[in-house]
Structures
1.
Amino acid sequence: DAGITQSPRHKVTETGTPVTLRCHQTENHRYMYWYRQDPGHGLRLIHYSYGVKDTDKGEVSDGYSVSRSKTEDFLLTLESATSSQTSVYFCAISEFASGDNEKLFFGSGTQLSVL
Amino acid sequence: KNQVEQSPQSLIILEGKNCTLQCNYTVSPFSNLRWYKQDTGRGPVSLTIMTFSENTKSNGRYTATLDADTKQSSLHITASQLSDSASYICVVSYNTDKLIFGTGTRLQVFP
């Protein structure tokens, strides 16, 4: 998966608890993204980063925050997990902005269940 | 409203047969169209990227077509293999930096 590691791969948590998902890349790509994938929906962008400490919101950012203190790491935090955040979360990277003729490389995903 | 619709939702074929998956979009302004393959339990992997001026692009047994006038794309798989069993996702880029993902077609290839 193009030098992208997501951790954990599976997580079960309770409503109201904080959760942090980690994405680590070894490709030195500038752009990193967090998506969620749910049945009946296409992948939806949560947040993205265009450099160290440079982040911006995607279309479904409510309830999520991100941080990028190093080029290789992009963290997604659910401050207080809710059942609606049960989903599969994918990290993706690209060397240039995703809208250009630029491939996105995806990690293997984190299955998060909020009970 | 920007939308990407794929059909069929699911498809079953026998090994060795060909198949075609469809993608219709209402996205503006159009930048490019991509097809991804997603194996169960894995992240999507890029198959092709096509710009406005390209109407065909191949990647091995996968051939994507694009008709920008009718806003339709297709992905044709030739001589299917068991390893082609996966979801195929159509993605359209617009406004130069935004992506909208279809919900995918789930393909199952049986021996």
2.
Amino acid sequence: GAVVSQHPSRVICKSGTSVKIECRSLDFQATTMFWYRQFPKKSLMLMATSNEGSKATYEQGVEKDKFLINHASLTLSTLTVTSAHPEDSSFYICSARTGAQNSPLHFGNGTRLTVT
Amino acid sequence: AQKVTQAQTEISVVEKEDVTLDCVYETRDTTYYLFWYKQPPSGELVFLIRRNSFDEQNEISGRYSWNFQKSTSSFNFTITASQVVDSAVYFCAPNTGNQFYFGTGTSLTVIP
């Protein structure tokens, strides 16, 4: 089956530093990847949609300069949280699909970010 | 963005009871797809089912069944003879084009 690997699973960083989260599709090519953020006991909030080789499309209210997304290849997308603050602490989840509208999303296991 | 309503925030049932999770969505599109996902306490999201808007035939898969009614924009999910391992948050997610939005989720607790 389609496997999405997300790394790291947990990260603790200090305020002001940047953190990079990687999302890899291991056994398929992901033309589209999605980045979500989830607060405790809340739903998944779509942050941005990225297509390989083009700029990410950010949802309204998501700061693109703070959450840098790069989708340089068909198997790798990265999310960099720049100048992290405690309010950026959250659970970040990436997902990927091959491109067909009816194909399900395959999710990574998420990254728990804690900013101290 | 589409609107997805999962009115039941939290549900608790006793093991072996049946439970139905409701999902109502709003969309202007005539062609779309509907998904259900499960998120157990460990955090990963598990794909359960996909349905396209042209197919209103209900589906049963083991203890799971789905009732899709396009006329009322509802896509409900029933677990029969619930088990403790079914305890999780369940998300309904309609999908059109390149957008994939999730409902607010229903937290299901199955009590042994």
